[in-house]
Amino acid sequence: MYDLTGFQRDLLYVIAGEEEPHGLAIKEELEQYYEKEIHHGRLYPNLDTLVDKGLVEKGSRDRRTNFYTLTRRGRRELEARREWEAQYVDL
């Protein structure tokens, strides 16, 4: 997790919070959070990086639509991150 960008971590959080979200659903969720447009040229290369790192799996619904899920490793990494954050942030 330490080598991910903040945007990549946000992608993991969105994927974890949805059931097999497709790219457009992830994009729309992040646009609401960031309050600005997320371009495809930013979104999909970062999703591919997460797939390459073994944190996310990419599946196919049809010929045009992919969906994303966290791998077991991705879930462990998110849990470890949240535990680390909890040491410093008490809300």
TrEMBL record:
It comes from the Archaea. InterPro entries: Tscrpt_reg_PadR_N, WH-like_DNA-bd_sf, WH_DNA-bd_sf. Residues 11-79 form the Transcription regulator PadR N-terminal domain. This is PadR family transcriptional regulator. It comes from Natronococcus pandeyae.
